[in-house]
Amino acid sequence: MFDPDTLTSIASSLKAGQYNLLLGAGVSLDSTNGSGRKLPGSNDFRLDLCRLKGARESSTLQRVFGTLTPTEITDHVQRRFERCNPGASLKKLTNFVWRRIFTFNIDDALEAAYTLPGRYQNPQVYHFDDSYAEAQDLSQVPIVHLHGWVGNPDRPFVFATSEYVRQIRSINPWMVVLTQFLPVDPFIIIGASLDEVDLEYYLAHRSTVSSRPDKGPAILVEPFPDSVTERDCEKYGLKLFRGTAEEFWDYLEEQIPSRPTPAELVPVSIQNLFPAGTSKQIVVPFSADFEPVPSNPIKNENASRFLFGHIPS
What we know:
seven-stranded parallel sheet, alpha/beta, 3 domains, 11% strand, 7 strands, Rossmann fold
């Protein structure tokens, strides 16, 4: 668990909606697909494809996936990961406010979790090939599928190493954005091994001195860490939580029980501008776009710093 100072820093950023998520296959292991089968981990999925193609069991997922025909992708990939029912690991994460969610998973379990009652935000789903866009306000959360998504079956999946390298070299917007945000913004990494080739590429941009001290620390959730995991956490400036995703959400729920919704993050001065009963769908976007002008402004006698990025005086 975390020491009091670390927990205070986490709570501050979590309540303000500053945390991003980076999800791997492990967070979907307690979810099921449309046929009621448990979603596989990356290794089980790799072994199944090896058996399908008659490949050596030592073959990498990237290599064996690159041999699949379009029909095999439909039958053994698309249908295996669609119409999902989310498990507790995904259901519980919808009760927090996130800045962005990046996922290596191609299933639709996360999107299904966001259809359930009690969610704090509404999802905006992006395929890695989509143009970059910011959420209008914290009532919406971008979900970016870095390997493709079964909800866009006509768009490419990425598992082959060569294809992934091609996407990175083509200056794919969402992949570039992740390399820019991961070193400086607070992130929570769940369900992903640090030795995965794509995650290792993104983490290579991060160090112990790259993160911002005025925001919460980056966190790795890992149920079975070893000495190598601990060393990597030190190398990349990650706080290690020893436990499962569900245990992590329960820990945050216990330690940080009072978390504002996006509507509650709107300043009272803005809320008071609207008549009682005004829809939150109006108040929240308005707050994201406008700030009230002070009624008795003090004249600024100094040179304006607006052109250097400071707020207007």
